[in-house]
Amino acid sequence: MKFIAIANQKGGVGKTTTAVNLGACLAERGVRTLILDLDPQANSTSSFGYTPGEHDSVYAALTGDADIADLVLPTQYKNLSIIPSEQDLAGCEIEMASEGDRLIRLKGILEDFRHSNVADYVFMDCPPSLGVMMTSALAAADELLIPLQCEYFGLEGVAKIVDLHEQIRNSGADLNVILEGIVFTMADSRTNLSTSVINDVRGVFGDVTYQTVIPRNISLSEAPSFSQTILEYAPSSAGATAYRQLAEEFLKRHAAV
Amino acid sequence: MKFIAIANQKGGVGKTTTAVNLGACLAERGVRTLILDLDPQANSTSSFGYTPGEHDSVYAALTGDADIADLVLPTQYKNLSIIPSEQDLAGCEIEMASEGDRLIRLKGILEDFRHSNVADYVFMDCPPSLGVMMTSALAAADELLIPLQCEYFGLEGVAKIVDLHEQIRNSGADLNVILEGIVFTMADSRTNLSTSVINDVRGVFGDVTYQTVIPRNISLSEAPSFSQTILEYAPSSAGATAYRQLAEEFLKRHAAV
Ligand SMILES: Nc1ncnc2c1ncn2[C@@H]1O[C@H](COP(=O)(O)OP(=O)(O)OP(=O)(O)O)[C@@H](O)[C@H]1O
Ligand SMILES: Nc1ncnc2c1ncn2[C@@H]1O[C@H](COP(=O)(O)OP(=O)(O)OP(=O)(O)O)[C@@H](O)[C@H]1O
Ligand SMILES: [Mg+2]
Ligand SMILES: [Mg+2]
After folding, report:
1. What is the distance between the alpha carbons of residues A94 and A164, in angstroms, rounded to a whole number?
2. What is the pLDDT of residue A163?
3. Number of CB atoms found within 10 A of residue A64's CB
4. What are the backbone dihedrals phi and psi of residue A123, each rounded to the nearest 5 degrees, phi first?
5. Which of B46, B127, B130 sits opposite A156 (nearest CB)?
6. Mutate to test the pocket of ligand 1, among A16, A43, A129, A148 (most ligand atoms within 8 A of CB)
7. DSSP type of residue B173
């Protein structure tokens, strides 16, 4: 079971869209995938038709009120499950802020979970911030996957999440999260902006960047309003094709290990 | 001097783009506008060519190391100035989290500033979160302006910011921030999604929603990479026209008071 944080403090870059649709494309290929929604906005949760707050979130495990394995919910897709989020998660930031072990509390809970073998990959959908929840997700993760919107502010933000990743690795607490990949999202091939962002980032990060580039595709933003992934909503769209390709590339990178 | 929080916890909905370009359009009409960057990402700061961290942010005023009036920097535009942000602001979330007066510390600092008459309007560009910085911006503000991306997750998120606004008003600490407006951003008139989001929100919020709708326009995302506002980068683009219209409507709403 591998824990993968899908994180970027820049807002609206495609974290949730990538967690949900990469998850669906892996599940379609028989790879058991679990989405752990760590964002109080609960967009991953509502993408599968669940109402945030109706079921316990990881907050219940963090406070010791529940065992994390009991929080797993099915989705309408075989091989794809979710641990939902709720508004109370926003309280974590304040509650955990003053605790000494805040960085490794989530890691501790996930370690027990690791041996339950409920899934092959766990995608942690992170909130857009450098706060406690995002930092503890990085500390708990085996890998970090950064969705990067092909726009100027997206480019500016990538240094910050990479710095944070370095800080976590060097914090001395035996945290070994590796920067597994950078995925370009919402690329608009007609504009120079996207192309120059992709070239700039490839120049710095080389093979860490995925070859697959996710194009801007309206079907991706329409699908959640029907509680569907792109595979069900628009299976032959450019968005579905791109996320299937991404899943293929993701598996190649992980098969080699 | 009116303090206006530009806030929405949903990421990437156009908070910074609205602060910068509505600010520029008001400045063009001779209205003195100040942008207070409260987001550690410092996207408003870099939109004017400043390097985050080179100048003190409001953090220095919050810690008592500087007077807020001394933090104001000019931009290349007459009537438009900025108080920049820096990475340290991210520390505020943790540092202030455990303090009893965290909600009104920023308000206290801004009250002294109010009488300096440095600007007619102060736009507070908020980070994408429901944390301490965003909440204290709402507590300090006279008005709340919500940019709302015309997409499903944008629609889902509007209830949360409106709830938070209600909580602040009812917190009993004599906080009177009013919900001044909702501005639709990144609208794509070719799709049903945008139209249905606009109709849904207008149905609930009526006249609070601005008539002006900001279209998705690539020039708006290209301008910041040249440290320009839309008025300098692409003055006859659909983006520039829309933000000029928004400034006109904004002034009409405020002239009436
Ligand atoms: N490739 C794409 N093409 C078109 N729209 C997209 C694409 N990817 C995501 N979107 C849309 O863009 C918006 C932002 O994406 P999403 O919510 O997944 O980003 P996020 O990083 O999870 O945001 P947040 O920072 O708020 O958590 C959503 O409305 C989503 O539907
Ligand atoms: N109307 C528009 N048309 C096209 N692109 C836009 C528009 N408004 C904003 N953008 C682009 O979309 C991205 C998100 O906008 P912006 O950064 O202003 O949102 P934000 O709400 O401030 O994000 P954050 O939550 O990270 O602070 C940016 O790359 C910006 O350039
Ligand atoms: Mg998200
Ligand atoms: Mg912003």
Report:
1. 20
2. 93
3. 8
4. -95, 120
5. B46
6. A16
7. S
